[in-house]
Design goal:
alpha/beta, D-Maltodextrin-Binding Protein, domain 2, globular, 9-stranded mixed beta sheet
């Protein structure tokens, strides 16, 4: 017992130092090219966020989780925010939005040999559409009479589409095209349908500031202003597809 106490006393300063090196924690998901655990720099939005806080003297820990878990994690005190969020998700979680950093072009992916043409979503009534559990889709998606089938992430949906489990997948264009570019089997069989259903802002959602604690949204915005003045903002964006 004595040795355990001595070991704890020796290790305690190093544990505290490691924790003190992290100013805040943000939850995110694999949503390439905006965020991705295997992407260089973590993806465009992760790198931009990291640098915005860095120029203000803060370090960020990013935890990559399935999207449904990201939303659950925001209801604890462990995270100070999450990315990349749509306005509906920010509102539902009671978060404070950052400025818009990108725009999602939401539409459909389909099998190349089974093209889909439609005027409005209700024209597709009765077809099976793959979506991701927990995404903040607009009510129009749920009101169109489609058979919506949930999966844990976008790449799972694309693989199911290729296998014939769905008729289409609802997905952000840049994300879908990036995922297809990384998988030759998917790329040769699946394509973007061509119509943009919604153009949705991508933002970071921060927990509301508390008296006596840092206002992380304000700090982030100041950091972004600095990156724009120095030109680093555009340098970061130029390294990723958009």
């Amino acid at each position: 017992m004595y040795l355990l106490r001595v070991a704890a006393l020796i290790l305690f300063p190093f544990v505290c130092h490691a924790q003190n090196n992290v100013s805040l924690r943000l939850a995110t998901l694999d949503y390439p090219p905006y965020s991705g655990e295997q992407l260089q720099g973590g993806g465009s939005l992760v790198e931009l966020t990291r640098r915005a806080f860095a120029v203000e003297g803060h370090t960020v820990q990013f935890d990559f989780l399935p999207w449904a878990r990201v939303r659950l994690a925001l209801r604890s005190d462990y995270y100070q925010g999450a990315l990349a969020l749509w306005p509906r998700e920010i509102k539902e979680e009671g978060l404070q939005p950052s400025r818009t950093l990108f725009y999602s072009e939401l539409g459909l992916f389909m099998r190349r040999d089974q093209p889909v043409v439609f005027t409005q979503l209700s024209d597709l009534k009765g077809l099976k559409l793959g979506i991701v559990r927990g995404y903040g889709y607009s009510p129009s998606i749920f009101d169109a009479g489609l058979e919506l089938i949930e999966a844990v992430d976008d790449v799972t949906n694309l693989r199911k589409l290729k296998a014939g489990r769905f008729d289409m997948v609802l997905l952000e264009r840049t994300v879908g095209e990036y995922l297809l570019s990384q998988d030759a089997q998917l790329r040769n069989t699946l394509v973007w349908q061509g119509q943009v259903l919604e153009r949705i802002p991508l933002q970071i959602g921060f927990l509301p500031s508390v008296i006596g604690e840092p206002d992380w949204r304000a700090i982030f915005e100041r950091g972004l202003d600095t990156l724009q003045r120095t030109g680093e903002y555009q340098q970061i964006l130029s390294r990723y597809p958009r």
